[in-house]
Amino acid sequence: MSNFSGINPLDLPSVPLIEKDSLPQLAAIYFVISENGKILYIGRSINLASRWKDHHRYSELKELRSVRIAWLDCDDESLLPQIEEAMIKHFLPYLNRTSLSQSKPKTKFKRSKTNVRKPYADKLIQVVKQARGRNSLLTFSKSLGVSSATVQMWEAGDRLPDVRNLAKIADRAGYSIDELAIYLGLMSPSKPSELTLILRHINNMPLSEVAIIAQAAAARFVAAAEYLENQAKAN
């Protein structure tokens, strides 16, 4: 199957991207096709439906209008890699030549003004990655109850976690929610009280000096007790 001039992906069965859950469970070569009939991406899968439940390109492709997924059945699964390679060489789809980390073409993948990168985005990206640690994208996303595509968007700075997920991320990264907000610059650190400052100072003092303070405090307590006793007798 080295000559694909007779295969037209536009004539193959297809569904809109938004209806990907209706894809059949079969081994196939699939084609992602744009509104104007251009082939954007080609891939293979032994189970087409399962592959598109959590496809790594989904968040990228859903930004486009009227994208469709077409497929070519393949009865012999062992031929999938060979057919996929030949199809890619024949049709030269754009996205097969780019990685997710590469910039998107300005004409088709330009971010909207409402998606402008926030000042704290870079710090938040690092916190999300710190929270995920060595967990796989799928394992981490399941632990939060979100899709792996959502986590990908967090780590790319394309979307912000909601408050509930932000609290979970903070906990996994070793922050309280207030500490994380302060780190991101979303909340100003509160000024510690005078008592807090005194206690911090005492914690760092030599024990000999702490003993002197304890004696002075004990004397003050005795004086306070005597004062209260005298006030009670006077009344």
Overview of the molecule:
There is one protein chain. About 7% of the residues have low confidence. This protein has a four-stranded antiparallel sheet. It is rod-shaped and about 110 Å long. The protein is of the alpha+beta class.
Looking at this protein, list some descriptive labels.
single chain; 235 residues; alpha+beta; GIY-YIG endonuclease; 434 Repressor (Amino-terminal Domain); 3 domains; four-stranded antiparallel sheet
Q: What's the architecture of the largest domain in CATH terms?
A: 3-Layer(aba) Sandwich
What is the name of the CATH superfamily of the largest domain? GIY-YIG endonuclease
Helical content (DSSP H or I, runs of 4+): 40-55%
Compute the average pLDDT.
80
Q: Give, in order, the helices and strands.
A: EEEHHEHHHHHHHHH
Number of DSSP helical runs: 11
Strand percentage = 5-15%
The CATH class of the largest domain, by name, is Alpha Beta
Inertia-based shape: rod-shaped
Structural class: alpha+beta
Low-confidence stretches: 101-116
